[in-house]
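Quick question, first post here. What does this chain look like in 3D?
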Amino acid sequence: MAMKKFKSNLERLSAGCLFRGYQKENTESEYVALGQTSKEARFLTRQWEYASEVERVLKELRLTKLLIRECSTGNVPHEVSRQELLVYYQGIFLNLVHQIKDKIMQLVHLMTEESIPKRLLWEDPIKVSSLLKNKQKKLQEIGIEKQIEEWDENSNCKIAYTLKKRTTHHHKVSSLKYNENFSRLNLTETLLKTGTEEIFTNEGKKKLEKMRKESEECLFSQASAKVEDTLKAIEGNIEKISSALVNHFHLPISEKEITNICNARSKMLDSFKITNASSFEKIPAHHKELLKKIIAKINEKYQKVIETIYLVGSLGRGEYEEGYSDVNIYIILSEEEVPEKTLKEIRNDIIYGDELNIRVFSKADFLSEKFLKYRIISKIDGLLLYGVDLVAKDKMPNAGLFTSLILNEDILDDLDEAKRWVKENSSASPSEISEKIRQLTKRIIDFTYGVVMSNKPQYTSSRTERIAKINETHPESKILTEGLAIIVKSGAGNLEDISSFADSFRPQAEKNLDIMRTRKKDDDEQRKRLGTAQS
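> Answer (accepted):
Ran it through. Tokens below.
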């Protein structure tokens, strides 16, 4: 679809500033995923905001011009005369000229800054004289020094004359009501009012009416003409400034540039979305039969006890590997406390192989903040096998730092649990040890991917894809990562290896966890500051 053409250089400037900001944000996906912007991107966005403000005030100036033009013929309340309404609109016009001057000065000032100001969203007023003095060389380089000078009240042009008039109108005795035609119109209308016209002859009344019409025509036509001339001067000035800024800063305004920026932004935003890749169609036939038998047993004996069952992990994604992968099930109980005898019965009645891992929650725990991680896993990597879908109304999270922390903040607990398991299972069989090593290795891979994900928003539940992304982001760790992938399949090692593995990985886990937590805290504080400033 063809892009709508710009009607003016100001539109080009505004669009160029907007898309330049998007262009910067496209390189900072980690900020966008959190609803934040870097200081540089915010600085560029601030320039677009001022360009948009100039557009807004210019539209209001044009509207006020129309109101002034129609003032002599429009219907007005009985409490005011048309000339009083004219003065009111003229005052608005003068104030709008002053407004647009301030916004243009801020826009030019920000676009010509050599570094990002310490303060954003609360700029100090910019005087025309200061801008001309401090940035004369830059203004000359851009080719807008003359246009900026026209906004100085001391210069000799229509814009400067209007600004001086506004100063007088706003701060001193306004000259608008002391215009000769304004005074004559007020006088003649007063003399021609019912009750006073009897003192005049017919000839005198005709002269007064003629004077009234002439004064009215001159007052409104002159006011309209002056406003029209001033607005043309302002529009011409802004067009020249806008064109020069667009060209000097090479702002992205071509159809090709805008299309590329929009496509890159769409691609980036799509990368934040986490989609559930699981489906029943991906489950091998014999596993489907086993799952059906589980559901039949639940329906037969435990309908009052079990609220929900989710299948999570590789089986639903179609990535299950016989002999290597686990079958993971979450069981959510309807009641807060279920007798241990009943729990043992449930586990005994769920007939499956050694690959089955069951995690049991009470409904209250599963829905608590503490177990948010498992609700997210059920949402993004799970299939509802039985009962009520407790995460149906939950929003799919965006990939990024927050999701990474939620899914991985318990890594130290997992490492400690692995060491406790070693102490409590000194006589564990080789197959039990192998399975524990495999689980710990998977957890380490998942945490490492979580660190990668927090720096560059992305998400996949596939461990194969996680390993590929780790290698892509940190190629220097490829040998180590591929070694971990081999351990996941082989499960090779002994009891001492589990403790050693957990101890050797812990310092790196603590370091990365601290970095992620600190960054989240900084992001929260930045969000709070921006929210306060904007409000």
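The chain has a mean pLDDT of 87.
The two ends are 38 Å apart (CA to CA).
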